[in-house]
Design a protein that fits this description.
The structure holds two protein chains of two kinds. Chain A is mostly helical. Helices cover 75% and strands 0% of the residues of chain A. Chain A is built from nine helices and no strands. Chain B is 71% helix and 0% strand. In chain B, helix 6 runs antiparallel to helix 7 and helix 8 runs antiparallel to helix 9. The chains are: A mainly alpha, B mainly alpha. Chains A and B meet through helix 2, helix 3, helix 5, helix 6 and helix 8 of A and helix 1, helix 3 and helix 4 of B.
Chain lengths: 193, 240
């Protein structure tokens, strides 16, 4: 994608990535009320709206931080569609409850759909990674966590009271094990195709 | 599990291969689709872990949570204004405010407002005649921090740690934390008398943003012979 295609609203993505409080506040001020309104008129309440908005913003942050995220459409439409679809999924999970949906029949711009799709795929992957990480052995979880929180592998070795060589090897093997668990899961297979 | 494979990946990412090994590995990658897939997934997994455990991610989530809470609470207050108040409600409201206030004073977190008594600036004596600095000093001592920032913005080559220090305080006051922290970190890594004071203000900047963990880290860095040591210890105790 060339720079020409980046929408000026990229500033919101960058603001999230830089943890810029005034930009985050302006997202809440400008874009949250519409989401809140939508969730309220579709069997939800304020607490649920608050959760959905927070989760969507964390997903956007994670995607921007992990892969880089270049917005090619207005933030408003992208953010609203993500929140809306997350809420619909939430409702499906609670599906025994009778759901009354207000259908807005608004045609959605192609680039908004594309952006939303990318973010949803990323989110799905991320939640798969998270799930598999929790299934790793305790020792592996500890080594991996430490090796990303701590500046150098020498310090990690010191903290765990093992040699540098051991901790380096352990890190590779634990990451390897994690990739194998991910690769073998059904969720990964359905993501790929 | 193919142990050697993952060790090779890790060595490759960390640039711990000889030129020869590297070329051979890259060559192998190009010709083996299955290997490519494993390699890509390993890379992706590493990126995922790096984001997950990055301290910036934790800081972002905490900040987001507090902004989200504030933003939703604000609307509640606005809504309740519509209700017509009767005298009885005033009494209830007053006692609720009182009870909440007492509770808050007893267990609430310490606030930036408890610590923002800044010392006055007197840097003009050294650069008599500089109108901009004079303006900055006056605005700062009048606690007009927006004006202070505007004045400092006009100063060229702001390399003096003392000036950087007062500029940073004004930036914290006007919520421009990123800029303030860059300046403070700069002073902190120098050797001026403002070195320890800069750490104290880094902690206050964290406190104002409700980043309590980072605040504690900074407080713990203030040496025992520093002017702000006692205040720092008290704040540390209050944060726990």
């Amino acid at each position: 994608m060339t720079d020409k295609n980046i929408h000026p609203d990229q500033l919101y993505i960058d603001g999230l990535l830089q943890n810029n409080s005034s930009i985050i506040q302006s997202i809440y001020k400008k874009f949250a009320p519409k989401v809140k309104n939508y969730i309220r008129t579709n069997s939800g309440d304020d607490d649920q709206a608050q959760d959905v908005i927070q989760e969507v913003l964390i997903t956007i942050y994670n995607q921007a931080k992990t892969n880089g995220l270049q917005l090619s459409c207005p933030f408003d439409a992208y953010f609203f569609l993500l929140c809306k679809r997350r809420w619909l999924n939430e409702l499906k999970k609670l599906s025994n409850k009778e759901v009354t949906l207000q259908d807005d029949n608004v045609s959605i711009n192609e680039s908004v759909q594309e952006m939303t799709f990318q973010t949803e795929v990323f989110d799905e992957k991320q939640s798969l990674f998270d799930e598999m990480f929790q299934k790793l052995g305790e020792k592996c979880q500890e080594v991996l966590k430490l090796s990303f929180v701590t500046k150098t592998m020498e310090e990690v070795a010191e903290k765990l009271n093992v040699t540098y060589g051991y901790v380096r090897k352990k890190k590779s093997l634990c990451t390897g094990q994690l990739t194998e668990m991910i690769q073998q899961s059904n969720r990964y297979k359905s993501l790929k195709y | 599990m193919n142990e050697q494979l993952y060790i090779t990946f890790e060595n490759y990412f960390n640039n711990e291969m000889s030129q020869e090994e590297k070329l051979e590995f890259e060559n192998q990658l190009q010709n083996d689709i299955e290997l490519q897939e494993k390699f890509e997934l390993y890379k992706e997994t590493t990126q995922f872990l790096a984001t997950k455990f990055d301290s910036e991610t934790t800081a972002f989530k905490e900040n987001l949570k507090s902004i989200s809470k504030d933003s939703f609470a604000e609307k509640e207050i606005k809504k309740s204004k519509v209700i017509a108040f009767k005298p009885f409600y005033y009494a209830v409201a007053a006692s609720v405010v009182f009870a909440f206030g007492t509770w808050f004073m007893m267990q609430g977190n310490p606030e930036y407002g408890d610590y923002n008594q800044h010392e006055n600036a007197y840097f003009m004596e050294r650069s008599v005649g500089d109108e901009t600095l004079n303006e900055a000093q006056k605005a700062f001592n009048d606690k007009d921090y927006k004006k202070t920032v505007l004045a400092f913005e006009k100063v060229q080559n702001l390399t003096n740690p003392e000036l950087q220090y007062y500029y940073a305080i004004a930036l914290i006051e006007t919520n421009d934390y990123t800029k303030a922290e860059i300046l403070l970190n700069n002073i902190k890594s120098g050797t001026s008398v403002y070195k320890d004071k800069a750490i104290w203000y880094l902690a206050l900047s964290n406190l104002k943003q409700n980043k309590f963990d980072e605040c504690k880290i900074h407080l713990n860095q203030i040496p025992a012979d520093a002017e702000d040591y006692v205040k720092a210890q008290k704040l540390l105790k209050d944060l726990d």
